[in-house]
Structure formats: C-alpha cells, structure tokens
Design a protein that fits this description.
Layout: H1 20-39, E1 47-54, E2 59-66, E3 72-76, H2 79-89
Antiparallel strand pairs: 1-2, 2-3
C-alpha cells in the first residue's frame, strides 16, 4: 500500500458534550463504584468514601470519613487547596 501521497495532517478531537442520559449513567456508575468500595471495607471497617462536587471550584472532592463520628479522615483535594482555589477564582 502506497501512502506517500497522504499528507501529514493534525486532527484535533474534542469530546462531545455528554447528554443528560450519559451524565445520569455516569452518576449511576460512580454511585455503584462508591458502594462497592464501601462494602469491601477498602478504607477500613470504620470508614467510608464519599464524593461531592464543589460548586465554587468546579472540582470533585473525595472524602474518607468515619462512619460513626462523621470526622473527615482524609480529603482530596485538601480543604486548604480548595480554599486557595476559591481565593484565586475570586469567590
């Protein structure tokens, strides 16, 4: 196969905006994944993982919290990083 006549071109592929149905499926998949992590006691028997969307920074935040006390054991990104991001954005 002779491809010498084909020019070197660059193609930029941008993902299409997800539809409402695709967003709903993504949310269901995330919920199922979190439930699987929590039922497997991946983070210990006393802890569970939670996800939420920070509306100010537009970032997903992951927290590992104690089931009984609701104390945050670990947060990604850290609260200080979210605060810094809010200050940079101007909120």
């Amino acid at each position: 196969m002779d491809i010498s006549s084909v020019q070197n071109t660059h193609v930029l592929v941008t993902p299409a905006e997800p539809t409402d149905q695709a967003k709903q499926k993504e949310q269901r998949d995330l919920i199922q994944a979190v439930q699987a992590l929590n039922s497997a006691a991946t983070f210990g028997n006393d802890n569970e993982v939670t996800f939420f969307f920070d509306r100010n920074t537009h970032k997903t935040v992951i927290k590992i919290v104690n089931k009984e006390t609701r104390e945050v054991v670990r947060q990604i990104p850290a609260a200080s990083v979210l605060k810094m991001a809010q200050e940079i954005i101007g909120f």
